[in-house]
Amino acid sequence: xxxxxxxxxxxxxxxxxxxxxxxxxxxxxxxxxxxxxxxxxxxxxxxxxxxxxxxxxxxxxxxxxxxxxxxxxxxxxxxxxxxxxxxxxxxxxxxxxxxxxxxxxxxxxxxxxxxxxxxxxxxxxxxxxxxxxxxxxxxxxxxxxxxxxxxxxxxxxxxxxxxxxxxxxxxxxxxxxxxxxxxxxxxxxxxxxxxxxxxxxxxxxxxxxxxxxxxxxxxxxxxxxxxxxxxxxxxxxxxxxxxxxxxxxxxxxxxxxxxxxxxxxxxxxxxxxxxxxxxxxxxxxxxxxxxxxxxxxxxxxxxxxxxxxxxxxxxxxxxxxxxxxxxxx
Length: 329
Hints:
Layout: E1 2-6, H1 11-22, E2 26-31, H2 38-41, E3 50-54, H3 63-69, E4 72-75, H4 82-87, H5 89-110, E5 115-121, H6 150-169, E6 173-178, E7 181-182, H7 193-203, E8 207-210, E9 216-217, E10 220-221, H8 222-234, E11 242-245, E12 251-252, H9 253-264, E13 270-273, H10 275-279, H11 294-299, H12 308-328
Parallel strand pairs: 1-2, 1-4, 2-3, 4-5, 5-6, 6-11, 7-10, 8-13
Antiparallel strand pairs: 9-12
C-alpha cells in the first residue's frame, strides 16, 4: 500500500511513518520542518520504501502526483501549539485551512479515491461543559478571545471541508479529533505541557503549572494513537464520520505535575503561574476535556495499552539520556 503522510516529520507523523513502514507499506512524507524535525525522520531516510519531500503543503508542486499515487492519506500538516497560535494567528489560519482544501482538491482532480484521514483536535469542542465530549455535542465558543481560538477554528473548517468533499465528491474521508497525544519526540517549546514538566523535573527546576492547575485533560500515548489511526484507516464504517481518538482517563494538570515529580524522584517545587505571565496576554482555559469514546470503540478493536505513568517513565529516561549526552560533549 502507498501511504502519504503530510506533516510526517512531526511528533505524531513520525510515529505513524514508523508504523506504516513496519507494516510493509511504501511511505511518502511531505513536511516543511517548521514544527517537525528532520531528526525524527533520520532513521527512515535510507529505507527503500520511504521518500521525503521538504515542502509547504500550501505550495508543494508535487501534491497532485502524490494524491494520485496514494492508497491512504494521513493529513497531519498544521501549525500547532498554543505559543505558535498566539504569536502568529494569521499563519495558523492560512496554513491549516488552505493546506487541507488544496489536498482535497488535488485528490478530486486526480480522479483517484484514496482513503483519507484528516486530523482535527479536541480543541474543536471549545467551552463545552459536558462531562465527556461526544461527537454529537454542541461546540461552544465564547465571544472574544479570537486569537486563542484560531487553531480550533481552523480545525472546524477542516472538518467542514472534509464533510463537504465526502458528500459532494464522494471522497472516503474520516476526521479524527485527537485528545492530548503525548510521548517520545514531542517538543515542549510550543507549549506542550508534559514534555515541559518532564524537562523541569529532571533538571530540578520549578515545575510551572499555568492557572490554578485544576483544569483536567485526558492523555494518550502516541504509540497507541497511531495504532488507532491505522485501524480507522482500514474501517469502511468510519468513512464520513468525525471520531474522537484518545484515552478517556482524566487527570488535573496539578496532579500531572505531581505525578511527573514522583516518577522522576525530583525535588522540584510545583509553581503556579498566571496565564498572563505565561503567555503575555489574558488566556481563558477550558476546565476539563475528556473524550466519549463510544463511537471509536464501535469502529475499531484497538484500545490504549500504555498507562500515563509508563509514558512519563519513557520521557524521563529519554530526557536523562539527552542530558547525559550533552554533559559528555
